[in-house]
Every structure is written in structure tokens, then in C-alpha cells.
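[SOLVED] Need 3D model of a two-part complex

Original post:
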Amino acid sequence: MTQALLSVRDLVVEFPKRKTRLTALDKVSFDIHPGEILGMVGESGAGKSLTGAAIIGLLEPPGHVASGEIWLKDQRIDQLPYDQMRRLRGKRIAMIFQDPLTSLNPILTIANQLIETIQTHLPLNDKEARARAIQLLDEVGIPAASKRIDDYPHQFSGGMRQRVVIALALAGEPELIIADEPTTALDVSVQAQIIDVLKRMCHEHKTAVMLVTHDMGVIAEACDRVAVMYAGRIAEIGDVRQIVKRPQHPYTQGLMGSIPSITERVERLTQIPGSMPRLDAIPTGCAFNPRCTQKIDRCTQDRPDLIATSQGQVSCWLYEGEKP
Amino acid sequence: MIAMLIRRLIQAALVMLVVAFISFSLFQFVGDPINNMVGQEASQQDRAELRERLGLNDPIPIQFFRFVGNAVKGEFGISYRMARPVSEVIAERLPATLELALVSGVLAISLGIGLGVYTALRRDGWLSHFIMSSSLIGVSLPTFLIGILLIYLFSVELQWLPSFGRGETVQITENWSTGLLTVSGWKSLILPAITLGLFQLTLLMRLVRAEMLEVLRTDYIKFARARGIKQSSIHFHHALKNTLLPVITIAGLQLGSIIAFAIITETVFQWPGVGLLFINAIRFVDIPFMSAYLLLIALVFVVINLIVDLLYFAVDPRLRATKRSAGR
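Solution:
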């Protein structure tokens, strides 16, 4: 396989508290390949968004990367000084946030925000930058882009604003976009359109995407591979079809079982008993062990690393020794 | 836009009318001015004549309409104390107050915004901590005490600046004499301007700081950071404008109160402005002057509020849009 675009290795993010420190991400490792869409699923608080924030270097203090490495191709980016990291943001890694209603500056025009972003990263004069801004808006599907570019954010609907946000994220022609729940705040009917735009734009610009969501439907629709997160750790990574069809980790199995299906008739949806542990009460061994129906003795003692299996990687002792 | 302007002007006129009624009722309820105007030896006939001449015998509604009519023309009658037209007296003293208010207003707004932004951006710097703690002094010490302390330090001990008066003034027009063109005028202005503006300065600074911190936490600032926008642009282009929206309102009201409540500062520094005159007028129950002053201050507030509304309109595009569609 080609060289990974982004490699995250044993990433640990900690939040110091008065006496202890909370480990919000615990040894997270994964790769994103050029042009690929990687889904990140998990419950609220599993660390999906935090992983995105850590990659782009926008963790909110006091949160910080305590150990581990983040590589963007051949460059290690988790320790870059502020200004170098700033140059990289938008130019090589961009980010899209959840709520398009609050992501745009209310008192600056779309033109103002787009042109500034373009000129931050590309050597274009005002006229060229404006032309490019209009072209981007046109590409993301804003009708009459050359007229609407001078409007303010409040003059756009939610879906249109998220398109503008996508255009803004693509302005510097990044290699990777971290999309943090880009459709959660939108109407269901608009969600599909936005995912479509994101998919098409990234395909055309050969941009890789890390799509953070808790919507399995979105994952199945848009992603090539998917990583399942639980309590700040990665439970399973693999090809999206494989994971939807044959989930390996007991947690993923529970997750898939809880999704209603049109084709299969089920009396009751499966439900995983209990809830995800708080960060200060993660059990020893596998974080999922208290809720796991298939646990063996070892699960409460040792923490499983990601084990390569026939269809991806899974951190579960049940698969130990299985031939990849 | 024009509809809004007209609506605001009508509202302003109503406010002024109510204030006019209040200041008019001063005439009815606060003592008998005649006693103050005539000497001990005045006969009953002299008093009656004076009463008739001042129109104090007419029915109240007529007096009120006459009062409003005259006020619109800028006539507020004859000052009981100085026996000169009130408008003339005020016009003579107003420049001093306006200059003082202007300088301390500019001082408060520029330093307030500047320091507020600084302390918000360098939240943990020692200088920020120092500024924030010393701003408590400005918020908590009463104005007259600050004035007296400043006089003690800079006039009595160091002898750098004069402790009272306006210094040399230059007559620009018939009614306008300014102290802004002479060195001694500026020297005399410094202490009163600081005294008058310090509270507003610290208030604005704390407000700007709080607002700025709030704005820096918003999603659009986060998104701007995620796009690699330069730090300076994020602070001064993306954040500062949003910060200043609510600040405009407060700054406007503060400017009004700087003009209105210059009384204490003018008394401490014996500044020959309208405020000092007002204090003397109260002592003397000089009702024409008091009512004129009341109206003047109301006018200042109303005008400033109107300007604030228009400024909002110019700065915030969201207001423009809703007004436009509402006007249709």
C-alpha cells in the first residue's frame, strides 16, 4: 500500500485535574491514506472529536498531547511551534465543525472570509482570490455564487452555510479534512446533500477525510474504512462493509445490533447493558470488560492492543493468535 | 432605514416631552422663587409685580406650553440667581464641560478598549494581572476621592499640574472659549479628565475583556484558527469587531453620564463648567437653570442613544437585513 497520509501512533491526550489527570485519549493509533474517507464512530465522550482536535493542534488547554506521535507524510506535526502549525492548518489539514450556524463569523461577508483564507495559503491577488472563491462556492453548489458571495452568513440557510463551510475548508487545497459531525446540526433531508457534497468535493480534489460522527448511516454511506472508538481507545478499525456486516469487537457487535434494519425483522433491538465509563473510572484491562458478554479472565487484567485480523484491526483478546 | 429613523425620532421627542414636564413641574413644587430673588426690604407690591412679570400667575397648562415653546427656541427664562438669561449662561459654560467630557471620553474609550483587548489576549501575563487588580481601584473608589488624591499627589506634592481652574483659554467664537489650544489649558485639563474618566475607563476595560474572552471561545473563531488565519487577523479582524457590538451601547451611555455627572469632578477641581453652575443653582433654588440643565442632559442622552442605534445599524449586518425585510 502507498504511504499513509496521516499516521497517528499511540496518541495520549491528557487533561490535568487538581490532583490527578484524566486520560481522554489512550494510545490511539490509526492511519489515513491519501484520498480515503475514514469514519470515526463512538458514543459521546468516546474521544472522536478530541482526536480531530489533537491532529490539527487545537486542543483546548489544559488538554494536551502527553505522548505519542502524529505524522503527516514525512513530517511530525504534534510538536510544531505555533506559527508553523498555523501555516499547516487550512493548507494541509482543514477542519469542519458541527454547527454551520455558529461556524461563520456573523459580521464578515462570505467573500471576506473566503478571500482571506485563500490568500493566507495561496499566492493570489485580490481579483484571482475572488474568482477562486466564487468557483469554490459554485463547486459546493451555491446557486448564483458570484452574487451571493457578498452576502452575510445570516442570509444563508443552514445547509447552504455548511456548504460555505466546506468551501472554506477546501480553500487552501488541503490533503486532509477533519469533519467533526458535519451533519449533526442539520435537517435529515439536508444531511444527505451535505455528505454528497463532501464526498464529491473530496473525490474531485483528492482530499482525504476523517469523518467524525455517531451516525452509522452516514458512515455506511460515505466511508471507505471506519474506526470504532470506546472510552478514549480504538476498539476496531477496518473496511466499512466488513465491519457493518461482520463486526468483530463485542462493542461493535452491540453497536451494529442496535441499528434497526428495514430488511430484517427483529423483535427487539439489542442493547448493550450499562454505559460507557467516566474517564476517571476506566476499569483495568479492556475498557469494555464490565459490559462485555463474551469476556474471558484476561480481559479484566491486561489491556488488549490492536490485533491484526483477516478484516482489519481489533483490540480484543478473543482474536489473539488469529491469522491475519 | 428611514422608517426606523422616523420612529426613533418620534420616540426621542416623546422622551423629551416627558422630561420637559418633569422639569416644568419643578417650578410648581420647589419653593417660592420670589423669596430668593428679592431682598428683605421688598414690599408686597414689588413681589406681586415680579410674580406677574415672570408669568407665575397664569394657569398651569398655559405655563407648560409656554415653557415647552420657549425651550424649543432655546429660551429657559431668566436665571433667578444671576438675573441673566439661562441660555446665555449655559452657552458660556458649556464649552468647558464639553471639552472636559470629550477628553475624558476619548481617554476612557481608547484606553478602555485597548487595555481590555490586551488583558483578554495576555490573560496570564503579570501586566494583565496588574492592570486587572488596579482597575478595581477605578471601579470602587468614589470620584471625589480620586480627584482629591490626584490633586494631593500631582499638585501639592509634585507640583506638576494646577489643582483648579481651566488655565488660559482662547476665544474661538463669541460663545466658545477653548482651553485645548494652550499649554496651561491642557495642563489644567489632565487631572479632571482622568478623575472623570477613570471609572468609565475601568468599566469599559472590564467589559471589553469579558466580551473578548467570550468571542474568542466561539465556533467561528475556532474555525478561523482551523483555517490557519493569522493570529493578528483573528484577534483584530475576526474577534474585535464582534466584541465591540455590545460595547458600543455601554460606551454611548457612559459618554452621556460623563457629561451629565461631571458635577462632582467640576466641584473638586473648581472647573468652570455647567456642572459647577448646577451645584450653585441647587443651593440657590435657581429653578429656571435647574430645569434647563435637566432638559439639556436629557437631550444629550437622547441624542447619544440615537447615535448608538444608528451605529449599531452600520456595524451589524444582521440588523440591516431584518430591518430591510421588515420594511417591505
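Edit: Chain B touches chain A at residues 218-220, 222-231, 233, 237-238, 241-242, 245, 315-318, 321 (CB under 8 Å).
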